[in-house]
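Re-running Endonuclease/exonuclease/phosphatase domain-containing protein to confirm reproducibility after the cluster update. Everything else is unchanged from the original entry.
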Amino acid sequence: MEQMILLVDGGYGKILMTLAQSISDEPWIVGGDFNTVLDMSEVCGSSADIQLAMSEFRDCILDTGLIHLPVHGERFSWHNCSEGDRSLWKRLDRLLVNDAWLGQWPSSYYHCLNARTSDHSLLVIRGDTVSHTKTNMYAVTRKLRALKPVFRTLRKKKGDLSLNVKLAAEFLGTVQQLLQTDRHNTLLIRLEKCCKLVFFRATKLEQVMLQQRAKIQWLKGGSMLENLLPKGGHAKSIQEGVPDSE
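Result of re-run:
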C-alpha cells in the first residue's frame, strides 16, 4: 500500500474527532480494541448493561464520518476465557476508515483471525490499490466529502437542517443505485445502512425544527387574539356577547 496514516489502538471520541478534522484529506484507518460494540448482535453470552457505551460509540462513528471496513473470518474478536454460563464473546476489535482511504483502496478488507496467545483476535488488512478513474467506489468517496458536514452537525443541531436532509437523501440514492448493479458488495451494503441512519436522523431533526416553528406561530397567534379580547373575564365577556338562540 502507498502512504497512509495507520492507527491501531482503542479509538475514542475526542481523539477521533480531532484526527477527522486535521487529516481529513489523507487516507487513514483506525482500529483495535474499542472496548464496546455497536449493538447486541455483536455479543454472545450474558453481558452487563452497555446501552450507553453502544450509543456513544455509534455517535462517535457518525460524527467522524468513519466507515466500517468489510471483515472476513471470525465474527467475535474477544473472549473472556470463561466456561459455562460465564462464557462471553464480543466483537470489540474492528477497523474503521475514512473516504480518502476508500478512494485509494476501494477493495480493501480485513481478516479477523482466531485468537492464539491473547484473548483478542489479530486483524490483518488486505487489498490492492485500484485506478481512481475507473471505479464506482471512487465516485462514492467523492460524494462522501460533501456529506461530511451532515455527519458533523446532525447531533449538534446546527446548519441548514433541510439542506442536510437533501444531501443525505441524495447520497443514499447514489449508494442504492450502485447496489442495484452489485447486490453482494459488502462495503456498499454497509454504506447503505450508514446512509439510512444519517437520513433518519436528519429527517427527525428537521421534523423537530418544523414542529417548533409551528408552535411559535401558534403562540404568536394566541397572543394576538388575547390582545383583542377585553382584560379579565374573557369567557364571561364572550358568552354575554352572544345572543340567545330563542
